[in-house]
Amino acid sequence: MIARLRDRLARLLGARVPALQVGALCVDDTGRVLLVTSRDTRRWIIPKGWPMPGRSLAQAALQEAWEEAGVRGRAEERRLGRYRYDKRQPQGFSIPVDVQVFLIRVEGLADDYPERGQRNREWLTPVEAAARVAEPRLARLIRRLAA
């Protein structure tokens, strides 16, 4: 309810309301976290993308994990958390994005997947992964896995 009020107030005041993306926090059975690099800046991130018609937000996050990292696994439907970042656009400006993060239990990794060759992927401990990502709220979500 608070989020709806905030968004309504932002629209009334003419402020930019963040776009919605879904993120996949991929974890294996030992507790390691899978990070990938972004295609343009090569920063370490979690797989993320836009919601998809006909899929829950968690299932869209699982699809992004497949496309960006070759992940096969199970998505938890309950949101783990959220963070915000500014997504750079080809026109040279950025838009604010609210990322809803879902936990993905990784059951396997494919060698051949849609964005293979466009990104690197690496397994890290939660502490190592948190140190690699640029977004402080995402780092906090990842560090919670180590507790």
What would your notes on this structure say?
The protein has 147 residues and is of the alpha+beta class. Strands 1, 2, 3, 4, 5, 6, 7 and 8 form an 8-stranded mixed β-sheet that branches. Strand 1 and strand 2 form a beta hairpin. Helix 3 packs antiparallel against helix 4. The radius of gyration is 15 Å and the shape is globular. The mean pLDDT is 91.
| Shape by Cα distribution | globular
N→C terminal distance: 30 Å
DSSP helical segment count:
4
| Structure classification | alpha+beta
Give a brief description.
The chain is 28% helix and 35% strand. The chain is built from 4 helices and 8 strands, in the order αββββαββββαα.
Layout of secondary structure:
Blueprint: H1 2-13, E1 19-27, E2 33-37, E3 44-45, E4 48-49, H2 57-69, E5 71-75, E6 81-88, E7 94-109, E8 121-124, H3 126-132, H4 136-144
Helix pairs in contact: 3-4
